[in-house]
Protein 1
Amino acid sequence: MSLRARNARVVLALLVVLGIMTTLVSYSVTIYRLFCAATGYFGATQRVASDQSAVSPRTIVVRFNTDTQPGLPWRFLPAQPQVTVHFGEQTLVYFRATNLSDQPIVGHATFNVQPDIAGRYFDKIQCFCFTEETLSAHQTADMPVLFFVDPAMLKDPDAEYLQSLTLSYTFFRSARPEGAQDLSRYQQPMAPTAIASPERGRQLFGTRCAVCHGLEQSKVGPMLGDVFGRRAGAVPGFAYSSALRDARISWSADNLDKWLQNPQGFVPGVRMPVHVADPFDRRDLIAYFKNLNPRHAVTATPSGS
């Protein structure tokens, strides 16, 4: 083999090695995040479609921590400093972000759980951290996170002793702002009025309900577009709890109000993790659901009860 041919082979081999190294560097962040998600390494949390775990009587305290990248003009805080939850219990919490600048900014949140060993057992069903997010100038948004702590943690000798864990988020200015979602979908609804307002109910649905429910398709929870007047547990193909499936109730205004106020008190044994404490919010959500059903028309209700 001539010297020129040998040199060409060496150059080709070096180019192949350089190409492989360049590809690994380009995708190193993605590969690292996949590795952490699969193993829980460095407290990476898990993303799941739904929670099928049995709820344990044991509880754990989940604390929340937030930070922003230096130079990012956002205020970012948890709406609650901590919650106490049962293992396997779905819990909805909120984080509030405010853009303090005069221009829209696209952000991306990174996250982890401490201690590291707890990351593999912290499961997020819905989270703003899955996507790039746009916050308009001086806009404030309350962003939901729906999670549960896997009861399998209680069988891990390296983790079952934990009494608390901390979920941390840091928001950075996004390096890939194209296609970002708009956080206006989480803006606060207008103030309640003296009579039932389907429009305010629509806004409440977007901020309080849409994280788990669609109108025309099921998500974590069943679709709600035709819920008013529907029999409980009746959406085809949705995996209801046996308690709700066997409840034999229909979603009248009165039953919806009782359900929204205290789901597990109204139908013991259901998995619904969220309640709506404000009577005006319940009133307007029910008015919205009623309006979605063409067989019904909203009747003005002057009180919030």
Protein 2
Amino acid sequence: MKRITCESLAGARFSPLNEIIRLKNASAAIALMVLMTSVGYPQALKTDRDGNTPAFKVEVWGNNPTDFSARVRSYFELRSELEKGLPIPAVTEDRAETIKADRALAQRIRVARAKAKQGDIFTPAIGVEFRKALLREMNAHTWKVIMDDNPGDFEAQINGAYPEGKPLSTVPPNMLAVLPRLPEDIEYRFVGRHLILLDTRAMVILDRIPFAIQCPDGDPACHR
């Protein structure tokens, strides 16, 4: 077998075929990286009004995110079972038909979760970690984004309906980036300073963390 030395490699001639293979391999690697980073949140990580994009961060929360995700997944699977047998709403511009289908699902959810209470999903330990993560991301700009469309404080009854006509608050991208991901049609929303977990398909409030956010100390610009 011919021995390959550094000198022989240095003196090797340029090969078009080898260059094509090298470029194809590099392209494949880039495509794989794009595919991996394209996996996002169902609650989209959109840029905010000032064009700021979220900085993706990894928070070390011990086993709490796993526990939280398992509880959310359990609810998601329950909802999937409850949807069976319900009429599939036709593609229509009739808002009344859509509302009727959503209310039928919401009623099944409320019956199945009749004993639901605060802390079933956001356990005390999970709530502590959420508050810490949100506090680290809070500043005057983030507070303003949250409060712009905030419906204000109201009694968010667990397993109850989100009030019709109330706006849905924006969850800033920097906060979404540090919170556990959620399945489709389940979202984080703020009600005043409280964080709720909302089923946006049935518009049912699943759980809440009271006083999940607070203004940064000494920053009067974010007080309202």
Protein 3
Amino acid sequence: MKSARLRIALLLCALLLIVMAVVLHRSNDKRSARLHTPELEYLKAVNSVAPPKDPQLMFILMSEFANSNLQDEGAEFFSARLREFEPQLTPVQKSLYLGIIGLLRAQNASRVPLLKRYGYVKDTIAILDQAKQVSGGQVFVVNWMAGIVHAELPGFFHQRKAAHEELAWCEEHADKAPHPAWLREVYYHLGKLALNDGDTAKANEYLRRSGYLLIHRPVGASCLQ
């Protein structure tokens, strides 16, 4: 039992660190080198054989692409696997592939040339919308990914309403979360949305529930804070 909980906690930390990189489209992309690690190559091989029965293998590979600064390659990898495996995928599995592709693309947006970036982000929004449609809007992880990406987008993309609906769904269906700690990001981003709406009291309450100390955390903030 302890080992299972530890596994979930480690995966969660990786995912939460990925979430913080979603704001890459706002930042200057001159950070870590792009690396192909043995762990990344192994996970790519495992995920290339067949659709994983345990979706954690997909999430762990997603985190390895992000940690290696290879979000664009990751999006292409999962897109290729989606095309290859699509005839045998369940709607839930397909929605997870689409959600991962959308999240990795969102992280990669800052590398896209400025003149092409708007269209790239619009295509990413469409991928996340398709993920929700395929899942019937009932998969926690898909709503979690879509809600966080939509919440981080600049206002001129007009996705704040969608973000609020997706994150509010996650809050209402907290029992469907893979682990209670997934709700930290839900509360945090609901707090940011409330602050943008001028509701400081609600923002502070969500911030308190998230367990974070600041409503604007730096990129790469630890999931353990």
Protein 4
Amino acid sequence: MDQQSAPIVEQIVDRTLAHYNQRAADFRDATRDHDVSQNIAALLRHILAAPPYRILDFGCGPGRDLRSFTALGHRAIGLEGAAEFVTMARAESGCEVWQQDFVRLDLPDAYFDGVYANASLFHVPGSELARVLGQLRATLKPGGVLFSSNPRGDNTEGWNRGRYGAYHDWDAWRGYLTAAGFVALEHYYRPTGLPFEQQPWLASVWRRPAPAPAPAKSDSASAGAQIT
């Protein structure tokens, strides 16, 4: 982030994290039984590597989905900015959880088979989104997969009940992800089976392209090289 916007962005992040820290137990209890199996399946079915997969749960909250990935036999690592959630997620999932906020990331390169960002990336201010998406792309292995689910909107952002959010429609979201170097795999709206007006969540799945393999040398070229 640039020096002019950094103080504003940091205030946004700190205030949003404070909101979650103050309400961590209530949030955990309210979301414990949410069924996001459709989202987990959407990520996993597009990963081309051999299982078990290494998954980054980006914004893991109290750790509900870390438990789900672990139960499926994968190695899940959580990332969370709210300290109260970090403590809960470690205790309730038994998984490794990194305490990092979304605009001050420190991620290993080409490390994860999948990144699962369920109800998290909408908290990234628009001014920082391209940079954050670039960091998520870099932490995926070539060919790795990013899942995201966010409350959709009309491309506005601001404060909503104590939390900062950016609410994109499909065209705008696709533009951000494509510019960051991702390839779209699928998208859908949730909850499934309802009219569009009653589906506030936009879910999408993306791939970090793998480099094209180098062309194989022909037999004649190889023979020529040996003769010379």
